[in-house]
Amino acid sequence: MRRSSNSGMSYLDWRHSIGTRLNTSIITLFTCYFLAMAASTYSLYEQFLSFNALSTNHFERVMTAAELTRDAELIASEVFESLVGVDRSNGQRSNNSENLIQIYQSVRDRLSNPTSPFDVKQLSIIDQWQTPYFNSLERFNQQLENEYQLKSALLLRIDSLFEQLNTLEQQLPLLATQTDTRFTLHALSALSYCATSLRAERPGQLAQLHNAIKDHQAKLNALSPSSETLRQLRNPINELTQQILTERGPTLKSERATLSSARETRVLAQKITSATFNYYQALKQITREEIETHQKQVITTLITLSLITLFMVIMTVVVIFYIKHHVLERLHLLYSAVNARMDGKEVRIPTQGRDEISILGHAFDQFAKARYAAEDQLKTAHAETEKANNDLKLANEQLHNLSQTDALTQIPNRRFFDQYLAREWNRACRHNNFLSLIMVDIDWFKAYNDHYGHPEGDACLQQVAQTLSSHLRREGECVARYGGEEFSIILPNTSREQATEYAELLRQAITQLEIPHPYGQVTISLGVATTNQPDKLSIEALIAQADQALYHAKNEGRNRVMTSDSGQPL
């Protein structure tokens, strides 16, 4: 672009072009935007890597360490259950211990890949107590097995003991001599001391009971009862007491050995449990510190993103300010000057600068000066003519609307309805088409007006009218205010079934408005009339049929649709 030399215009330098400036501004803005997006993406990627490492390395190991601690406690609990329930089957004890040890070992294997020297140190402490602990468990189970076998043998002796006592009790009423009585008393005493020795828990107490048993056994052997039954009981009683004296000592030693083994196992269990729990606590602390570090990184990232966002906002404001100050304001000044010249005012056209806007200013200034007078007269005449036409058009539209529009509901009035129905009636006669008419009446509207007042009644009429109007489906359909709270709907080329379905749709639409009413909510009744032979019927007859259907709808209880053919509801 360039101007002629006589007007003081020169070539347009691309360096001063608005396009160059705008392109530079937009490129700078988008470059900053992409750099900001790259920085944000990189920061978010770092957060993703950090969180992934935190969830993979720390959370999983913390949960595994907690599970390891729980399994160690379960094994320790099994030791005490075995100690308390020594009468359970050895197979059950062994299987439980083996299962718990396998579970513990499987959890321990999941920690077999330490990620730091700290993990190596803590796991070595756990492994330091693991082997002694499992060995002590094995010894404890063996000791329990020995105790179980010894007690099983003693149970047989107890059964024999009760049999002998029962036999002696049966002989008490049959004692004939003093010797028989003394024999029986020594036998009962020996058996009673045997029974007491089965519950003795200290070696000294057991030794005293054994001496007492041997004393009564000696006295028993020194007597010769007269009863053959008593003489036959001598040897079984001696054998039974001797067996109890022989077996109770090892059983007591086994019980003490079992208790000692249980104590040893418990100590080792406490040590391995303490080691696993300490490892769990340390991992939890490390994880907590990692979470705090991650949170600080997140805060740093949020601050960075906020600063980037602030920078982008500032850059955007700078670009907008530049465009506004160097382009929009100058264009606005040029536009205002042009409008002022169009209005006949003598204003100066802005021509400062060496860009496109200044060139436009120079060009318009020359053009305005050359044709100012002619354009002013032409625009003045055109404006006057346009104003007159607009005023006439507005007046005609107002008159037309006033004559055919209901002032309250802003839908066609009765006059428009009569004209439109006559036009559609003639069209239906020419083409032998269906023509349907729906008469609509608001139920109990007088009660609504009496209860809420006429302003609310007007608002109700407006809302119903707008709803009916908004549900017109096809071109050529028309809804009009027929009078009062009654409306009419003209449906060209619509059969009775279609009109009835449409009327039901309108009834449901009004119900869904949920306008409150003293009797519940506002509803409408609708009467439908249809003809497919307009030339054999009159407009007045069609209206009368729709009114009659509406009358039936009112009599049938309102809030329903009735047709003119049979007076039946939809």
CATH superfamily of the domain at 410-563: Reverse transcriptase/Diguanylate cyclase domain
Oligomer: single chain
Q: Largest sheet, if any?
A: 5 strands, mixed
Radius of gyration: 56 Å
| Shape-level CATH architecture of the domain at 410-563 | 2-Layer Sandwich
**CATH topology category name of the domain at 410-563:** Alpha-Beta Plaits
What is the average per-residue confidence, as pLDDT, rounded to a whole number?
76
Tell me the number of helical segments per DSSP (H or I, 4 or more residues long).
12
For the record, what CATH class of the domain at 410-563 applies? Alpha Beta
Low-confidence runs: 1-10, 86-92, 566-570
Distance between the termini: 76 Å
Estimate the global geometry from the Cα principal axes: elongated
| Percent of sequence in beta strands | 5-15%
Biggest β-sheet: strands ordered side by side in the sheet = 2-3-1-6-7
Counting helices, strands and paired strands, the structural category is alpha+beta
Report the order of strands and helices: HHHHHHHHEHHEEHEEEHE
Account of the protein in words:
The chain crosses the membrane at residues 21-45, 298-323. It is an enzyme of class 2 (transferase). By secondary structure, this protein is of the alpha+beta class. Among the domains are: 152-264, no CATH class; 410-563, Reverse transcriptase/Diguanylate cyclase domain (Alpha-Beta Plaits, 2-Layer Sandwich), CATH 3.30.70.270. It is 74% helix and 6% strand. It has 12 helices and 7 strands. It has helices at 18-84, 90-109, 117-171, 178-197, 203-222, 228-342, 356-404, 414-431, 445-452, 454-470, 496-513, 539-555; strands at residues 435-442, 478-483, 486-492, 516-517, 520-521, 524-531, 561-563. The protein has a 5-stranded mixed beta sheet, with helices on both faces. It has a two-stranded antiparallel sheet with strand order 4-5. α1 packs antiparallel against α6, α4 runs parallel beside α6 (228-342) and α6 packs across α7. It is elongated, with a radius of gyration of 56 Å. The two termini are 76 Å apart. Mean pLDDT is 76; it is low at 1-10, 86-92 and 566-570.
